[in-house]
């Protein structure tokens, strides 16, 4: 049955994704036969699927296979495998905190987990693809699943509106991105990023069509990571979406979009570097500054974290602008760290949700140190990490990113980035002040489900461990340097 | 080469001529008795009571959405059908997997009751 | 044969109409139609290039764009139906539960 279009090797390369797809369909079908009380089994099925896929991925990493397959459309190099591990970790943590939250919201159904797994498959292919067709399909698989998940609370108007805004702007940005892709295809006559890079290098550097292609591609991709001036959808989507989904989309899809950007810019558009580095530098400064300054005036914790995540996208762009080994390692380690610290803080926001309390105002945390001292201390650790204070993991990520731009002599960018990190301290500490200094408003304590407890334990341990003993994690992150080969 | 297209040209000309000629002949043959009632919409002889552009139920949208999804997927069947002999057993397997995934989705929809017209 | 530039200019015009429509219109369905127009102009670009450089990838890409556009349309319309059930209006300016 094998022929020139299909080799047995091909199926081994995407084996983890095949497993995930089987489990996604399995969850949907099993859900049909489950009683209301047993819906929590769906979360277990999904977790088993992720564990199985992680094991398959680990086997793939240790076997010396030919990593290119499907007629060179897929390249499962160590860059791709590293990012897939990050996605698997983030998704597993999100599923852990979902079951209790969904039953409080009264929407505990199996398709939620199926959609998360499908989105995960899309993200995995986004980092594996080296062909624009594969990359586009993967991007849309991820995005379409997210549109549905953001609007998952069908009877909640806020969730509907968030989904509508997210969908309209997401589809619009895909259209812009696609126009850029079509022009690149026209210039190079191929959809393979490596061939595109060769053809672009042969052409004159100030080719108008190539410039239009770069501008549209950049705009479309910046939408996905929420870079200024394409960030307006992000706070609304984050606020309106179910909190567990906000946790998910603030970490994994952001990492996937960034990996896609790295692949396209570092592999495909390297010959046009002189035209995109200045544009991205401006975007980077605007994104950091606007994200941090707007976050200061927020009273809703979800919106505050949304603007903080815009600012973090700005820091991450530093690594791409540097474009050297330090920068890429920085982006890779930052996303590993970001997965733990951001999911940790969002887990606490999810845990604030009670039957009678939405728990997304900063004031809802007043006096948390008296009611839930453990949660308050955890929150403090995660906030310190987000701000990048030394004993925590956030410092390692920021250190690598800032150092990378200093290496490439972008001193102005480095100074602006450090100033921004100082501004961000202010609003992170505003939350701390409310938690530790204000009087409590009610007596009711948080109840933590086993899933939430597990997630908090894992995120806390890694946030501190990466901060104190970073060497093994940095070696792990340096796997992503295969991008340059 | 252009000679092959002459039958099509003749066909197009005939297709255009037929309605024009028939309408012209009928106009010449038929009696003409204009009346106001003849221009109103047909409602079994009763005067129409509301506008014909009525709002209709949202269920039509749901059926339309499902139709769009399942209809467009067939676009992948055509290239496979044309190159069936080249793709061989591999192509058949691949297509069965594709259709299998669609069927899982269909079964799920059915069980969810999305196809029932309540 | 019609020169390649004609197709590209037509596609660029269609794309711009789509972008302008998306930015100017306030009705969700109209905005959605503008997006579809943009996608179709992309399809035209792909097919024109594909024919001009005698390479099939562009046409394959068009297949996938069409199918994904249909999937997006299904999800988008479903979101719009859910929104309409809760709110009875399709004007995006009234989607103001969250401050900007």
Q: Any descriptors?
A:
B: 118 residues; Methane Monooxygenase Hydroxylase, Chain G, domain 1; flat; C: 100 residues; mainly alpha; Helix Hairpins; 77% helix; elongated
Helix content of chain C: over 70%
Sheet with the most strands, sense and barrel status of chain C:
none
Distance between the termini of chain A: 33 Å
Total strand count of chain C, please? 0
Which structural category fits the helices and strands of chain C? mainly alpha
Strand proportion of chain A, as a percent range, falls in under 5%
Principal-axis shape of chain A:
globular
Total discrete domains of chain A? 1
Strand arrangement, largest sheet of chain A? 1-2
Overview of the molecule:
- The complex is a heterotrimer of chains A (485), B (118) and C (100).
- Chain A has helices spanning 8-13, 15-32, 40-62, 78-105, 110-128, 132-150, 157-188, 193-202, 208-225, 233-240, 243-268, 273-296, 301-322, 325-352, 368-371, 373-387, 393-407, 411-437, 450-468, 471-477; strands spanning 68-69, 74-75.
- With 485 residues, chain A is an all-alpha fold.
- Chain A has one domain.
- In chain A, strand 1 and strand 2 (74-75) form a beta hairpin.
- In chain A, helix 2 (15-32) packs antiparallel against helix 5 (110-128) and helix 4 runs antiparallel to helix 19.
- Chain A is globular, with a radius of gyration of 22 Å.
- Chain B has one domain: NADH:ubiquinone/plastoquinone oxidoreductase, chain 3 (Methane Monooxygenase Hydroxylase, Chain G, domain 1).
- Chain C has one domain: Helix Hairpins.
- Chain C has helices at 4-24, 28-52, 57-87.
- The radius of gyration of chain C is 17 Å and the shape is elongated.
- The N and C termini of chain C lie far apart (51 Å).
How do the strands and helices of this protein lay out in sequence?
The complex is a heterotrimer of chains A (485), B (118) and C (100).
Chain A: H1 8-13, H2 15-32, H3 40-62, E1 68-69, E2 74-75, H4 78-105, H5 110-128, H6 132-150, H7 157-188, H8 193-202, H9 208-225, H10 233-240, H11 243-268, H12 273-296, H13 301-322, H14 325-352, H15 368-371, H16 373-387, H17 393-407, H18 411-437, H19 450-468, H20 471-477
Antiparallel strand pairs in A: 1-2
Helix pairs in contact in A: 2-3, 2-5, 3-4, 3-5, 4-5, 4-11, 4-14, 4-19, 5-6, 5-11, 6-7, 6-11, 7-8, 7-9, 7-10, 8-11, 10-11, 10-13, 11-13, 11-14, 12-13, 12-18, 13-14, 13-17, 13-18, 14-16, 14-17, 14-19, 14-20, 16-18, 16-19, 17-18, 17-19
Chain B: H1 6-29, H2 59-72, H3 77-82, H4 84-112
Chain C: H1 4-24, H2 28-52, H3 57-87
């Amino acid at each position: 049955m094998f022929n020139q279009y299909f080799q047995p090797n091909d199926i081994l390369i995407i084996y983890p994704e095949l497993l995930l797809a089987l489990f996604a369909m399995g969850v949907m079908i099993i859900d049909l036969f489950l009683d209301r009380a047993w819906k929590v089994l769906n979360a277990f099925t999904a977790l088993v699927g992720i564990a199985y896929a992680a094991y398959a991925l680990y086997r793939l990493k240790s076997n010396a296979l030919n990593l290119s397959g499907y007629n060179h459309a897929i390249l499962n190099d160590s860059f791709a495998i590293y990012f897939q591990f990050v996605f698997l970790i983030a998704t597993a943590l999100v599923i852990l905190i979902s079951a209790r939250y969904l039953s409080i919201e009264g929407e505990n159904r199996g398709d939620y987990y199926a959609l998360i797994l499908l989105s995960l498959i899309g993200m995995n292919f986004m980092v594996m693809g080296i062909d624009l067709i594969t990359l586009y399909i993967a991007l849309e698989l991820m995005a379409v699943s997210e549109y549905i998940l953001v609007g998952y609370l069908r009877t909640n108007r806020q969730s509907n509106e968030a989904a509508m805004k997210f969908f309209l702007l997401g589809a619009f940005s895909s259209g812009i991105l696609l126009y850029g892709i079509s022009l690149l295809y026209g210039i190079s006559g191929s959809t393979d990023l490596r061939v595109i890079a060769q053809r672009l290098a042969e052409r004159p550097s100030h080719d108008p069509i190539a410039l239009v292609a770069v501008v549209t591609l950049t705009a479309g991709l910046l939408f996905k990571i929420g870079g200024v001036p394409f960030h307006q959808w992000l706070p609304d989507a984050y606020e309106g979406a179910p909190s567990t989904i906000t946790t998910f989309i603030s970490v994994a899809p952001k990492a996937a979009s960034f990996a896609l950007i790295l692949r396209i810019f570092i592999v495909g558009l390297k010959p046009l570097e002189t035209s995109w580095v200045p544009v991205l530098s401006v975007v980077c400064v605007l994104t950091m500054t606007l994200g941090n300054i707007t976050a200061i005036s927020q009273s809703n914790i979800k919106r505050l974290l949304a603007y903080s995540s815009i600012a973090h996208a700005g820091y991450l762009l530093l690594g791409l602008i540097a474009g050297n080994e330090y920068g890429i390692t920085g982006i890779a380690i930052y996303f590993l760290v970001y997965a733990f610290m951001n999911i940790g803080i969002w887990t606490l926001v999810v845990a604030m949700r009670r039957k009678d309390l939405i728990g997304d105002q900063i004031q809802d945390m007043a006096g948390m140190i008296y009611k839930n001292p453990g949660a308050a201390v955890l929150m403090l650790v995660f906030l310190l990490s987000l701000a990048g204070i030394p004993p925590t993991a956030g410092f390692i990520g920021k250190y690598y990113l800032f150092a990378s731009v200093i290496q490439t002599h972008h001193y102005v960018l480095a100074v602006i980035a450090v100033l921004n990190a100082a501004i961000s301290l202010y609003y992170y500490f505003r939350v701390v002040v409310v938690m530790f200094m204000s009087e409590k408003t009610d007596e009711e304590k948080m109840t933590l489900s086993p899933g939430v407890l597990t997630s908090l334990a894992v995120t806390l341990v890694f946030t501190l461990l990466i901060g104190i003993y970073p060497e093994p994690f940095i070696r792990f992150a340096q796997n992503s340097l295969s991008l340059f080969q | 080469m252009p000679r092959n297209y002459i039958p099509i040209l003749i066909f197009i000309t005939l297709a255009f001529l037929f309605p024009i000629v028939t309408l012209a002949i009928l106009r010449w043959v038929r009696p003409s008795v204009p009346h106001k009632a003849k221009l109103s919409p047909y409602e079994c002889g009763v005067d129409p009571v509301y506008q014909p552009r009525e709002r209709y139920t949202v269920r039509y949208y749901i059926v339309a959405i499902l139709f769009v999804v399942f209809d467009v997927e067939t676009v992948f069947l055509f290239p496979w059908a044309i190159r069936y002999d080249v793709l061989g057993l591999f192509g058949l397997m691949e297509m069965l997997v594709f259709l299998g995934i669609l069927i899982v989705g269909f079964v799920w929809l059915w069980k969810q009751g999305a196809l029932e017209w309540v | 044969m019609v020169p390649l530039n004609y197709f590209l200019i037509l596609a660029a015009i269609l794309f711009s109409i789509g972008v302008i429509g998306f930015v100017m219109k306030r009705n969700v369905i109209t905005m959605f139609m503008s997006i579809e127009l943009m996608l179709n102009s992309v399809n035209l670009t792909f097919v024109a290039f594909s024919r001009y450089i005698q390479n099939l990838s562009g046409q394959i890409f068009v297949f996938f764009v069409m199918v994904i556009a249909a999937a997006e349309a299904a999800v988008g319309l479903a979101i719009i139906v859910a929104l309409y059930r809760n709110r009875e209006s399709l004007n995006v300016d009234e989607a103001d539960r969250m401050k900007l």
